[in-house]
UniProtKB/TrEMBL annotation:
Residues 1-25 form the signal peptide. This is trypsin. Residues 37-77 form the EGF-like domain. It is an enzyme of class 3 (hydrolase). Gene3D superfamilies: Laminin (2.10.25.10), Plasminogen Kringle 4 (2.40.20.10), Trypsin-like serine proteases (2.40.10.10). The lineage of its organism: Eukaryota, Metazoa, Chordata, Craniata, Vertebrata.
């Protein structure tokens, strides 16, 4: 039997909880503990996918939907991503617990739980895969040879629809034939740069090979590049350490080239360089690679520059300031070294696939800190197996939308090649559309009409 003092305490607690419930309802906040909510009842159309409405016992008004395990959202309208992860998986809260090598994940230790998983399921007392410490995808610790080793988890990336760009108001200039045909290729990539595979130039028909003729008349490969119109190639500014003093007569550009040490007259087109524009804001004296972008104007032959073939085609430029979601997969290509430290180049054109890395991740101290600014972005493979390398500089990072390829990045710099937590860094091309248009007088702002619209 409850005594008088206990009754008063109970009544006081009851009143306090009632007031608390009313206050929470007024402010529209969802309650985590429904002490004074009625039992679950039919949702009357409020909650979807089998969810049930929970109402306040005071007002009778709907408070929130109690959703089945596989659904979430205000009205249980979204399927939980328990079998896949989006972006880099920073918000993954599924129950996968197996690594890519097939090993079962170990339980998270108490330090990790306190620091990173206090708000997670069961306060982190589980062995589920999570992306903590800003890795590239969800991971866990597994036991190998009686030691704990970090491995990425065997979880697929969710099928995320590419983001779209809202239509831009106002008239646009008529598109040139080059713009209408840009970004197409006739051969699919041969997927098996570092860790990549040999590719045919038909798979990357916009790739340019920039050569420098030495004083001994030897033709030396200097950088990659990308054809953006019949007479214009875009590349990295650091490819020309001589800056404005670069001797144009020593430069040449070849399109349609499969191998550096072989020539194929039926596919290749070679040009002298008539003009070079190095971005005015590029100053690499501090080795910061800011504004690492330049343009080469090809010298016409018989009144024209490149002829479009299966081996030579321009790539499209995306709309200004457009960005991609972390985790989005794109392609890189180049003739650079297959491994950091090798004295020789690949000779053959190679390709690889890399994923965008969120800016705030790449600016973590474990990555590059403040060396990465808004004119750059990072990309790498989740397992760090593929990357651009030395002499890939200036080459393209392209992304596919509606069967067209758009040039989002220029291979710029990085710490080593395929090195863990040291991804490739790329010039963010969409920051330079206006600069490109000013130098080339080409209407690349019309690229937005080819980009997927809402």
């Amino acid at each position: 039997m409850m005594n008088t003092r206990s009754s008063k305490v109970f009544l006081s607690l009851l009143v306090a909880l009632l007031i608390s419930d009313l206050g929470l309802w007024r402010h529209g906040r969802r309650r985590d503990i429904s002490v004074f909510s009625s039992p679950f009842h039919s949702s009357d159309g409020i909650c979807l996918n089998g969810g049930v409405s929970v109402s306040s016992i005071i007002t009778g008004e709907h408070l929130y939907c109690n959703c089945p395990d596989d659904f979430t959202g205000t009205h249980c309208e979204r399927v939980k991503s328990i079998g896949c992860y989006e972006g880099m998986g920073l918000n993954y809260r599924g129950t996968a617990s197996r690594s890519v090598s097939g090993k079962t994940c170990e339980n998270w230790d108490s330090h990790t739980r306190r620091r990173y998983l206090s708000s997670d399921l069961h306060a982190g007392r589980h062995n589920y895969c999570r992306n903590i410490q800003y890795r590239l995808r969800p991971w866990c610790n597994v036991r190998k040879n009686d030691q704990l080793v970090r491995e990425y988890c065997d979880i697929p990336v969710c099928d995320v629809k590419p983001f779209t760009l809202a239509p831009t108001a106002g008239p646009t200039k008529p598109q040139t034939p080059t713009l209408q045909t840009c970004g197409h290729r006739t051969v699919r990539r041969q997927m098996k740069i570092v860790g990549g595979t040999v590719a045919t130039v038909e798979s990357h028909p916009w790739v340019a090979a920039i050569f420098w003729r030495s004083k001994s008349k030897t033709k030396v490969f200097r950088c990659g590049g990308s054809l953006i119109s019949s007479c214009w190639v875009i590349t990295a500014a650091h490819c020309f350490p001589e800056g404005s003093q670069t001797r144009l007569r020593r430069l040449s550009v070849t399109l349609g080239k499969n191998a550096l040490n072989e020539s194929d007259p039926t596919a290749e087109q070679t040009f002298r360089v008539e003009q070079i524009f190095i971005h005015e804001g590029f100053n690499n004296s501090l080795q910061n690679y800011n504004n690492d972008i330049s343009l080469l104007k090809l010298k016409e032959k018989d009144g024209k520059c490149t002829e479009e073939t299966n081996w030579v085609k321009p790539v499209c430029l995306p709309p200004p300031l457009q960005s991609l979601q972390p985790g989005f997969t794109c392609e890189i290509a180049g003739y650079g070294k297959e491994k950091f430290g090798l004295w020789y180049l690949s000779q053959y054109l190679r390709e690889a696939r890399v994923n965008f890395i969120a800016d705030d991740v790449c600016r973590q101290e474990e990555y590059y800190g403040n060396k990465v600014n808004n004119n750059m972005f990072c990309a790498a493979r989740p397992d760090w197996s593929q990357d651009a390398c030395q002499s890939d500089s200036g080459g393209p990072l392209v992304c596919k939308f509606h069967n067209r390829f758009f040039l989002f990045g220029i291979i710029s710099w990085g710490d080593g090649c395929a090195k863990e937590m040291k991804p490739g860094v790329y010039t963010r091309v969409t920051n330079y559309n206006q600069w490109i248009e000013e130098k080339t007088s080409l209407p690349f702002t019309t690229a937005r009409t080819m980009f997927p619209q809402k």
